Structures are given as C-alpha cells and as structure tokens.
Amino acid sequence: MADTAVLGQPVTFPFSKKTAKNRVMKSAMSERLATFSSDDPRKRGQPTEELIRLYETWATGEIGIIVTGNIQIKKDHLEATGNAIIDRELSDYLEDYRALARAAKACGSLVLGQLSHPGRQVPITIQSSPESASDIEHPSVAGVLFARPTPLTREEIGDVVQRFAYAASVLFKAGFDGVQLHAAHGYLLHQFLSNRTNIRTDDYGGPLLNRARLLLETIAEIKHTVDDPSFMISVKLNCQDFIYPNDGVSEQESITLTKMLEYAGVDLVEISGGTYELQLAGKSGNNFSREAYFIDFADRLRPHLSWTKVCVTGGFRSASAMVDAVQRNSTDVIGIARPLTAEPFLITEILRGDKLRAKENKFPSSQTYHIAAASSQIAEIGNGYDITDFSNPFNVSRFIAKLQQELPTAMSETAFTGEETHCL
Ligand SMILES: Cc1cc2nc3c(=O)[nH]c(=O)nc-3n(C[C@H](O)[C@H](O)[C@H](O)COP(=O)(O)O)c2cc1C
Q1: Does the keyword tRNA processing apply (predicted)?
Q2: Do 152 and 131 meet the contact criterion of CB atoms below 8 Å apart?
Q3: Mind listing the pLDDT tens digit for each residue in 91-104?
C-alpha cells in the first residue's frame, strides 16, 4: 500500500515564495458556467453563482493548488460559450472574481486563474475573423468549423500582451494567488510557439526565441503590471505536440523553453501534451497505455531546471502512481483533472489513506465520452445536484444515448485530456 505522506508535503515556490499545502493540483477544466449572449458580447463572461458553488466544493477537497478553467482575455475570442472573461472593454467583474477567489481559497488552497486566448481555435459560430500568429487555418474537426485567421500585427501583439497583463491585475486585486498562462493544446500562445502555426518572418517567428517572444513578453508585462513578487506565475506547456516527423513543438524545444521560463521567473510549469487538431483526428503519436502519460518527459526535463517547480498532468488515477512519481523525483506536483469532477473529495480520501484509486468509469474507450461526462459533472456540482456515478453502467448507457442526440459537440478545451481521442 502506498504511503501517501509524501503527497501531503507542502511545496514552496521559488520566486513568489508562496507555499501550497500539499503536492496535488486540480488542473484547469473549462467550466462553461459564466454568462453568454451570442449577439451581445458585453453580456458574456461574468462568473455565476454556479461557478462559485463549484469552487466552494473543490475548496473543501484538500487540494494544494486549484487552477480555474481557461479565462479568456478577449470577449469575442472564446474557447467555448460560457467561458469566464476578463476583458478591459467589459466590466472587470471584480466583485464576482473576488467571490470566486474567496470560495476557492476558503480552506487554504492556492488559487491560480488560467488565462488564455484561443487564437485560431475559436469556433466559427463564435468568431468568423479569428486572429493568430499566421494565416494557417485550423481544419474542421468533428463537425466544428474554424475560419481562416489573420496574422496579428506587431501592434496587435502588443495589445494581446496588455490584455493578459490587465486580466492578471484584475485577478490579483480579486485575491488570486497567481495566474497560469495557457501555452499548451494549440491555443494562441502555443500557436506562436509552434512552427506548424507560426510561419512569421519578423521578431515573433523563426527561431524558438522569437516564437517564445509573445509568451516571454506577457510574463514580463504581468510582473510589471501586478508589481508584487508574491504573485505566482505558472505556465502550462506541451512536453511536445506529438506531430511527426518534426512538426510542431518538439521535446528539445520544450526543454529549452522551460529553461527560458525559469529565467523569466516562472514558479511552476505544468506539463501536458498534444493539440486539439491532432488529438481529435486520432493522429497523436503518444503512448497512453499507463498512468502519468508525460512522466518520461519530466524525467528528461528535471536535470535542466534549478528552481522552477514541475507539475505533471494527465492520467494519474492511483495513489501508488502519484506517490511513485514524487518519490522518483519526476515531479514536484501531481496534476489531476477528470477524477475531481467525479469525486471532488478524492484527494482528502487519498491523503487519509481511505482510498487507493479514483473511481473507474464504465465508458467505452472513446475519450469523447469521458470528456463530456466530466463537463456534465462540472455542471452538476455547480448546480448543487448529485454527481452522476459513471462507474454504474446504467448511468453510462443513458448518458451516451443522450449525448448521441446532441453531437457534434461544440469545439472546446474539453478535448484536451492528453489521451488519444477519435472522431465520432
Ligand atoms: C472537461 C475538461 C475541460 C478542460 N479544460 C481545460 C482548460 O480550460 N485548460 C487546460 O489547460 N486544460 C483543460 N483540460 C485538460 C486538463 O487540464 C488535463 O490536462 C487533462 O484532462 C488530463 O488530465 P486528467 O487525466 O487528470 O484528466 C480540460 C479537460 C477536461 C476533461
């Protein structure tokens, strides 16, 4: 039986000096519980009481660090309807974000707001003129269409940097411990990083240092604007894009990039992998046959870092795999997403030794079901309903029948679990 004491150890971050009460992080999951209006962007993105209830629940689950779902920095560039937004052209919703921070921090978790811009990865139903690094269109996937993006001008890139910094400053005022920049999974920051989506010939394209410029400028501007060294900055990165041969961000580039992030004063790098485009097309080359999909990369990354802490996310289900990952020194922090929608108090039980692994759901192998199930459980928790138990085959068949009437689903961050998914 795994001795979970190691998971209960506090982690102090090198630059902010903030301390997480234990080694477990709830990774970002798009909640889609903010307001949305299709015709009036001014009525979008306000946190609702359902969103706050969701975080009240997770707050009591003994989680060391809670990362929110992706909060968008531009009201007309959303990953999905119902995203929370902080856009200086809207109300800052400061009181709502204060309530959210209060709820999530009630039992001593550190709370990070994940900031993102979808770039070209915005469904055409939300944005017909998206912006990106270059004019490379996202292929349609599972019935979701995307428009051809326009490359951002240098001035517009400056505006994006300012927007990230503004959103971070609102979260700082609201009482968040820090932000996480979403630079994984094919969103705008990742579109700049990847030579597949960035073919620019200016200072923001070409060598890795140029492709990383937007991310590095954003980090510098957040530090300058917030002007408080105790405000944490985390970045979510792909360990690689799993596009062969030699396309997208490679493993060596990710290692170099992580070293740049350490120099930039990033406290925590969360390791994920893959992009929506390739994952949904079922072309990812990763091997997801075991827990902790990206742990081998973390092992190769660790010797290159002196300060920045690492969180590996994707696939953790058993206490023994979590303990093993920490004891082998592969990671400082264990990132967990889907198990916490089925069992918000899983970590309490694991830390107490009352439980050895997360509940196993009875869905067939298609990840689309697993993801839709997590989304639906998020809505249930937010609404104060009982959480559907998908370890019960009857609930699973009922859910699948309902889902099949609703597909194709909207494009969303929910496609990113790090596992191979298949077109339906
Ligand atoms: C419903 C759902 C929503 C997600 N939304 C986000 C998101 O907003 N930002 C993000 O970085 N990752 C998002 N992810 C990916 C998770 O953070 C995590 O990387 C992935 O689920 C693998 O971890 P797991 O195996 O513990 O679920 C989402 C995943 C799910 C299932």
Answers
A1: no
A2: yes
A3: 999 999 999 999 99
Helix (H, G, I), strand (E, B) or coil at 112: strand
Determine the distance separating the centroid of ligand 1 and the alpha carbon of 155, expressed in angstroms: 32
Tokens 């990354």 belong to residue: 301
Task: Tell me which residue of 328, 344, 374, 351 sits closest to 26, measured CA to CA.
Answer: 344
Domain positions in the chain are: 4-415
Rounded to an integer, the average pLDDT of 313-329 is: 96
CA distances from residue 262 to 7, 13, 213, 267, 391 in whole angstroms, order as listed: 24, 12, 14, 7, 41
**How many Å apart are CA 201 and CA 96, to the nearest integer?**
42
Q: Which residue puts its alpha carbon closest to atom 19 of ligand 1?
A: 417
CA of 94 to the centre of ligand 1 (A): 25
Pocket test for ligand 1, best of 417, 420, 421 (most atoms within 8 A of CB): 417
CB of 68 within 6 A of ligand 1: the answer is: no
Contact 184, 237 (CB under 8 A): yes
Q: Element (H or E) spanning 116, and its range?
A: strand 110-116
Q: Tens digit of pLDDT for each residue in 210-219?
A: 999 999 999 9
Q: Write down the CATH number for the domain with range 4-415.
A: 3.20.20.70
Q: Determine how many CB atoms are found less than 10 A away from the CB of residue 290.
A: 9
Tell me: pLDDT of 285 over 50.
no
Q: Ligand 1 atom 10: the closest Cα is on which residue?
A: 28
> pLDDT category, 405, cuts 50, 70, 90?
confident
